[in-house]
Amino acid sequence: MPNPRKKIPLIAAVLLAACCSVAYAAAQTQPQLQLLPPPPPMNPNEQDGDLEPQVTIIKKAEQTVEEYRIGGKLYMIRVTPTVGAPYYMVDDLGDGSFVRHDTLSPGVRPPRWVIHRF
User: Fold this and answer.
1) CA-CA-CA-CA torsion sign (68, 54, 50, 73)
2) Helix, strand, coil content of the chain in percent (nearest 5)
3) Which of 78, 80, 83, 85 would bridge with 64, disulfide CB 3.0–4.6 Å?
């Protein structure tokens, strides 16, 4: 009967040789990495301020109006009355018509399209 203890070093040597050959092959096939070129200089006509909203605050006796614009286009108005909760007028579609929202949380919005008319 063969001794099982003699098989263990042989199996370990075969597994070690297989692992080393796989590691050597992987090291040989890795591509050589190159440095990326630096980014192009920023256009002086473009400014980061064009991407941030501009806020215009108009204070009146009965309310405070905050107008939010990006790139000069008005997209939201926040009205804070002296008495009561603030509300928002939002241009949802970007066509210049504003819709009143009591909050800016998305919440549940039912669909607005017509499926069938009777």
Assistant:
1) positive
2) 25, 25, 50
3) 80
Q: Beta strands of the chain (E only): which ranges? A: 54-59, 63-70, 73-81, 87-90, 99-101
> Looking at the predicted structure, is the pLDDT value of residue 13 above 70?
yes
Residue 103 has pLDDT above 60, yes or no: yes
Compute how many other C-beta atoms are within 10 angstroms of the C-beta atom of residue 21: 10
Q: How confident is the model at residue 116 (pLDDT cuts 50, 70, 90)?
A: confident
Whether 92 contacts 99, CB under 8 Å: yes
pTM of the model: 0.49
User: Counting Cβ atoms within 10 Å, is residue 20 exposed (0-12), middle (13-18) or buried (19+)?
Assistant: exposed
Instruction: Give which of 62, 75, 82 is closest to 101, Cα–Cα.
Output: 75
Nearest one of 66, 46, 49, 70 to 58, comparing CA atoms? 66
